[in-house]
């Protein structure tokens, strides 16, 4: 866990970053020979000025590093150890700045990445952010709390007064070791995973405001990352037990499949697309695939659906569902083609080195 002293030291080293920094995203002959179909975005988490590193993504899955755009905030210089440090809705890209306790929004509209706004995260050490139809919530790790904000289609941010909600350890200090916050697909619930207490918190959301936290015991040890399928099934990875579990969140929280192991180590991140969930196993350099059934149950498809480079730490599926992008420990991004049976084929790895403790991954 990054201490307050470490974060304050990082803050003292930072210079001001201009709000209007931009980066063109149109493909160039040097960047790629194939037309650009989309992009992959990751936060550098640099303590001297956080930024979004952009990768051009072609229709055949190959990647090309394109450049960086400042977020206007500061990173921590070390891994956030979370999922959801970067998230996207439409043409807006949201990112946490763990070094100065802020959240930034950038616009991808019009073929360029442009910083639009930045506000306080409403707590200490933000590590994850989620958005849904004009309402966002950020998870502040060291405050053991979530806090809300509003945003406009053009990317203007405003705090949501009175929206701070504590997790199951209200005294703060990061005792819950919370890893992720995310809205359910219908926006009526928020979920937070607590590694330190082996708990999953749920909040009911009405008119943008979350209820108090309702804590539920995790089916596996050390619940970490999670994602929802389109039917609202919650799939959670469990780092200590090398497993994944599925749950129904509403109308009442209940486990469907409990701690289904994958024989791999450090199952930390998970993303869902279509009928499948992919769990990234950080200590095994592998990806496991699970089938998510209509009733919410899981079956293990392949313990090793794909092998990664060293230190895989996050993942995102492209909007068309054809490719899985996985961030590696040095900041490189590895691209996998997704097959209809849930297996993966590595297509390309764009080699870069960013020794800042990168955090968060998103695609368009």
Automatic annotation (TrEMBL):
What keywords does the record list, in alphabetical order? Signal
InterPro entries registered for this protein in UniProt: Cycloisomerase_2, Lactonase_7-beta_prop, WD40/YVTN_repeat-like_dom_sf
Molecular-function GO terms, alphabetical: 6-phosphogluconolactonase activity
* Cross-referenced Gene3D superfamilies: YVTN repeat-like/Quinoprotein amine dehydrogenase
Q: Does the keyword Repeat apply?
A: no
Residues in the signal sequence: 1-31
Keyword Oxidoreductase attributed = no
Describe the family membership recorded for this protein in Swiss-Prot or TrEMBL.
Answer: Belongs to the cycloisomerase 2 family.
Q: What is this protein called?
A: 6-phosphogluconolactonase
Native species: Microlunatus phosphovorus (strain ATCC 700054 / DSM 10555 / JCM 9379 / NBRC 101784 / NCIMB 13414 / VKM Ac-1990 / NM-1)
